[in-house]
Amino acid sequence: MLRFLVRRSLGAIVIILLISAITFFLFFALPSEPAQLACGKNCGPDAIALINKNLGLDEPVPVQYWHYLVGIFAGRDFEVGHCPAPCFGYSFTNSQPVWETIMDRYPTTLSLAVGGAAVFLITGVSIGMIAAAKRGTFTDKFFSSLSLIGNSLQIYFVGVIALWLLVDTWGLIDRPEYTPITENPAKWFSGLLLPWLVLSIIFIANYSRMTRSQMVEQLGEEHVRTARAKGMSGRTVFFRYAWRGAIAPIITIVGIDLGSLFGGAMITEFTFTLHGLGRLAVESVTEKDLPMLMGVMLFSCTAIVIANIIVDALYAVIDPRVRLA
Amino acid sequence: MTSPSQAAAPGANAPGPDAVPTAEVGKSGAPLVGRSPGQLMWRRFKRDKTGVISAYVVIFFFLIALLAPVIAWLYGKNPYTTYGLDRPGLLNEFYYPIKPNGGIDGEFWFGLQPQLGRDVFTQLLYGIRTSLLIAVAVTLLCTLTGILVGVTAGYMGGKTDYFLGRFIDLLLAFPAQLSFVAFTPVVYSLFVNPEKETPTYLRVITLILVQWALGWMGLARLLRGQVLSLREREFVEAAKVTGASPWRIIRKELLPNLWTPILVQSTLMLPTFVTAEAGLSFLGVGLVEPTPDWGRMFATGARHYQNDITYMFFPGVAMVIFVVAFNLLGDSVRDAFDPKTKR
Fold it and tell me: Which residues are listed as membrane-spanning (chain A) (predicted)?
């Protein structure tokens, strides 16, 4: 296990370094004048020169990248002052430190993504298991057509319709807002309930379909047949034997879906006016705030890569056939 | 998988195991003839009712996208004119349609846009047109790149395969949606000075480029695997022995066997690009006013949903129908090509 974790972490570091290098190069080398972006419209050459000097933008891009990397681990000194250890620079638009803004925003996205994942995993896997147990019946067909439609729904459409129906018209669910869980868990839950439900809609269909086919496949396996032949109850065979085999591939798919989960969280945040990382990314795009965007990008990529390692480790715990090292 | 080069060989009179020759022969009395896999596929597809209906729906969407100017001309309106502002009696003092259900009537079939009072029907037509144009371009580019990289990696093997594989891994590590959002302004600034307005055609090109850069890897990976196994088959070996050039082997022996995954994958790809582009526009990084855009209609709808939910309804339902039809079509194409797979 330890060897696996070390090996995967090393691979992850390489991937993150490459991503950061590519992103950094794209952000700071391609635009003709990053300082222009920092300065906004109607900015004289003097102001641009000053910004270049203050932010170290007048150096060659590889040198800038090196300073950036060093800054993340050791802090960095700008002309304007010292930027402490995880230094991702300062925002072009409001001069706030990037790291603090990210720290401020990420709990929202984390709550949204984890809660949404819990909802779609529980619902999707249950639906898939019910469909597999009742294969060929009306229930099965009903769920499969439901998943076809669910698969074609979009957060930006369903979210608004749900907001209108459930919140504005019927008043069944609280208006979405983010309250830190440490502050008020009940409010945290009720405020995020609708975003979770809507975010999970696009995933439920996939997971129910996959669980169903995995279960059907597992139920046809020989060890399952042997268990049946031994006279084990259908319930034990279904849950202890088939389910265990079926759930492992599902876990892998979760790892692959993490990236799109983040994308989904971005659109969900936008639909429900939650202030998370996704919204921060979009805001920094519209304001052309490169350091902020770079920070969000790096932070999210790291989060996704780490989550992927955890998922893979989980996979080995669930399925002992998988050798990690 | 059947190899076309084998099935279409002269003298191959026996129909494939999937053909149903009896009925045809009974009617025409003609002798048994070999059918190409394409013909077989077409016959199977025609029998699949769901597939045929969804194909019609998909064609319908492409037709209205193509004919949007004609339809708008017949209908007598355009997506740019602010009818509600120009003409009194259409919008109230808060600039929402006076008539119920978003101002739907005989003149404005799908109602009026809140605030600006533009015609929703033509906006949707032109919006579908823009979105489909982008999605089709991205799909074509991604399919071509996927074929090129996948076949090269699979056929060349060795170092080429290794490096292309690692490159694909790297690109797959980028979270797609976030990268689309993050890299769009960078590509904009590549073309134009940030101080100036970005012209629409450059925005379209940017959206295409950004989605293309991170969209082709799935197909490439799939095709690489297919080519790896095909490369070892006897007919490829035979072609090699008879002195066929690599280019000829790829074109005549490998590609005909790859059309199934290519077609199925690109059919399934297109709706994801439509929704991704719509998502970008929804987030405000896609096309900007006044270019009509499917995705931006959702952004407008979301802003005014409390007072005018109808505006959201038409683009939303249209998109659900479009994606459902396209997914069903993809499944049917897969079934028609490869009857062994069951849904």
Answer: 12-30, 110-133, 145-166, 186-205, 245-272, 292-318
Dihedral pair phi/psi, residue A191, rounded to 5°: -75, -25
Whole-number Cα distances in Å, B14 to A65, B5, B36, B339: 66, 15, 12, 19
Whether B298 and A305 lie within 8 Å, measured CB to CB: no
Judge if the upstream peptide bond of residue B290 is cis by omega within 30 degrees of 0.
yes
> Is the whole model's pTM more than 0.95, yes or no?
no
Question: pLDDT digits over B217-265, tens only?
Answer: 989 999 998 898 888 889 988 998 998 888 899 888 898 888 888 988 8
Please tell me the distance in Å from B30's CA to the nearest CA on chain A: 40
Structural domains in chain B, sorted by start = 50-81+123-337 (1.10.3720.10)
**CATH number assigned to the domain comprising residue A215:** 1.10.3720.10
Q: The domain containing residue A28 runs over which residues?
A: 2-83
Same domain, A185 and A54: no
Q: What would the pLDDT profile of B164-200 be if each residue is shown by its tens digit?
A: 988 888 888 888 888 888 888 778 777 776 666 777 8
Whether residue B99 contacts residue B55, with contact meaning beta carbons closer than 8 Å, is answered with: no
- Judged by a CB distance cut-off of 8 A, whether residue A286 touches chain B is yes
Which of A30, A157, A168 faces B298 most closely, judged by CB atoms?
Answer: A157
Task: Please list every residue in chain B whose beta carbon sits closer than 8 Å to the beta carbon of residue A300.
Answer: 175, 178
* Structure ipTM: 0.83
